[in-house]
Amino acid sequence: MKWMGGLVVVAVVMGWVATATIPAAPVSIDSASLKFLPPETEGIAFVDVAALRSTALIQDVLTTTTLDFQKGMANFVYATGVNPQEDVDRVTVGKLGAHEILMVVQGRIDKFKAEQYFRDKAQDQETYLGQTIYRDGDGGFVFFDGLVLMGGQIDAVKKGLDQMSLPGSAPLRSDLTAAIQTIEAGNQIWAVGDFSISDFPPALREHTPIVDMLKSLQRGTYQMRIDNDIHARATGTFSDENSARNIGDLARGALAVAKMQVAQKQPDLVHLLDGIQVSNSGPTLTVRVDESGDLLKTLQKTGLNRGN
Predict the structure, then answer these.
(1) How much is the CA Rg of the chain, to the nearest whole Å?
(2) Which residues contact 204 (CB under 8 A, 6 or more apart)?
(3) How close are the terminal C-alpha atoms of the chain, in Å?
(4) Distances from the Cα of 95 to the Cαs of 37, 120, 156, 206, 261, in angstroms?
(5) Do residues 11 and 170 make contact, with C-beta atoms less than 8 angstroms apart?
(6) Which residue pairs, CB below 8 angstroms and at least 24 apart, start in 174-182?
(7) SS3 at position 92
């Protein structure tokens, strides 16, 4: 699906920025997304795009950033009137298995216009449980008013429709539910679940010492909240304490080297790197990020000026 990611490209752009004080209460999955996630879901990622749009830092980013959509996505935006930068409100991504992804995109999505666009393209389609699946390569889309169900594989889409057809939603795995409870409310971006080296892009799976160490990664969590500054926390649980410690040592060493290299020429980058802290506790590695929004904007402007 060459342009499926375009619907959430704004979330990717926003993903590098987040806040200050995070209230101590767990998040919850909205019912619209939960009804599509089958019990075998291994991991969940969520982006509250609507909440991000209202933050001061993101508004600054959007006024200085132009999103360049791929041709297929640009055609879809034009034909349906869907503007991902304005009309997408929430994105939920479920990892159902190895390389099997199911995505629920909510927002101001007109089912009639979206389906008309695919019919005009003579896109392959099939009916499943009363819903029309529009094929795009190996994956597909199902449109509802205000929601798109999409997957990189047709089987993932069908699993989502199977789940929706049940009279009562089957519960998620207990360990996944417990991990969600560790995510604090107010985070616009979060992710939990089982992860392995096979989930990384192919270019990052090449045989290197760090990849070998990451093979022992079992599961993790990530949470980020955006306001005027950045506050984010990621944890990774490894199969043994040594792996977590070795990865931590490698990360701390890389940060130290980076600071030495930029200390004279780009002192602002040193302050940026100072906002990254890496710690270990048994088999768990934790990375905390606290960054000033003003500093990020300064670096962005500096980068833009150098590029001109």
Answers:
(1) 21
(2) 211
(3) 34
(4) 9, 31, 9, 22, 38
(5) no
(6) 175/219, 176/41, 176/42, 176/43, 176/44, 179/219, 179/221, 180/26, 180/27, 180/28, 180/29, 180/44, 181/26, 182/26, 182/221
(7) strand
207, HSE (Cβ side, Cα atoms, 13 Å): 0
- pLDDT tens by residue, 132-176: 999 888 888 899 989 999 988 899 999 999 999 988 766 788 888
How far is the CA of 63 from the CAs of 60, 131, 273, in angstroms?
Answer: 5, 39, 26
- Contact yes or no for 222/191 (Cβ under 8 A): yes
Contact 96, 42 (CB under 8 A): yes
Instruction: Report d(CA 47, CA 141) in Å as an integer.
Output: 19
Tell me the per-residue pLDDT of 275-308, one tens digit each, with 9 for 90 and over: 999 999 999 999 999 988 888 888 877 764 444 4
Of all helices (H) and strands (E), which one includes residue 260?
Answer: helix 241-262
